[in-house]
# Entry
Amino acid sequence: MATRDARPTIPAPGTAPGETARPDRRLRATGIGALAVLLWASLALFTTLTGDIPPFQLTAMAFAVGGIIGLPRALRGGRALTRGLPAGAWALGIGGLFGYHFFYFLALRNAPAVDAGLIAYLWPLLIVVFSALLPGERLRWWHTAGAVLGLAGTFLLVTGGQGLHLRGTYLLGYLAAAVCALVWSAYSVANRRYPQVPTDMVAFFCLATAALAGVAHLLFETTVRPDGWQWLAVLALGLGPVGGAFYVWDHGTKHGDIRLLGTFSYFAPLLSTALLIAAGRADASPLVVAACVLIAGGAMLASADTLRAARRRN
# Structure
C-alpha cells in the first residue's frame, strides 16, 4: 500500500519485529484490554451468588471454565504448540494468574477484607509506574496524577470514607496484599515482553492455574458441593471476570497503552459497586458519586495525550 511520505515507522513498545506501530491498532488493543475492566466489575456480584463455596475451590472451578472456553481455538491454532512456548512465558502466565489469587486469598485470611483489598488494589498505580521501564514508553506527570486520583476514588469507595486502620497483628495479611499488587502489576507490564505469544495460549495458563488452585483447595479447604444456581454463578465467573477477562487483558497489555489500562482499571470497583446497587445488594450514597468523580477525572487526565492525538488524526 502506498504512503503519503517516506518517513520511517517506529515500532510501538511491545510490538514484534517488523510489526507496524499504527496508532489506530494500539488504540483498538487498548479498548480490547479495557473490556477486562468491565468484566472484572461483575466479580463481586457473581461471587456473592456462589454462596459458601471456598475461595480456592471457586478459583479452580472458574479457571477451569475459562481455560476450556479457549482450548479449542488454542489447539486449532497450534502455532505456539509446534514451536514451543518460551519457559519465561509459561512462568509469567501461570505465576501471574495463580500468584495473584493465592496471595489475595492469603491476605484475606490474615487481615480485614477492606484493608487487604485496598492494599491489593495498588496494582493499577504500580502498572502506571512500572510502565516507565518499558522501551519506548514515557511516564508523564499526568499519567501518574490520573492514577493517583483513581486510587483516591477507590480508597473512598472501599473504606466508605472511614479510612484505614492498619494494625501490627495483621502484618502477614498486609504483606500478602502488597505482594498481590506487585505480582499482578509485574505480570501485566512484563507481559509486553512476549508479544509473539498468541493470546490463545491463555487457555493453558488458565487450566494450569485451575490445577494449582485445586491442589491448594485440597490442602487448605473443605469441598462444598454447589447447587443449581451456584453452578450458574461459577459458569458466569469463568466466562467473565475469572476466565474470559484474562484473554482480552493479555491482548491489551501486549499491544495497547499499558498506562491507560492501569488507570482505567480503577473503574472496576466503581462499576462493581454500581452493579451491586442495581442488584439490591448495596446502597447508593454520596460517597459513590464522589468516587465516580475522582476515578473518571483521573482517567480523563491520564488519557489526555491519547485523546489529543486521536483528535489530530481525525
Observations:
- Residues 1-20 have pLDDT under 50 and may be disordered.
- DSSP finds 16 helices and no strands in the chain.
- The longest helix spans residues 87-110.
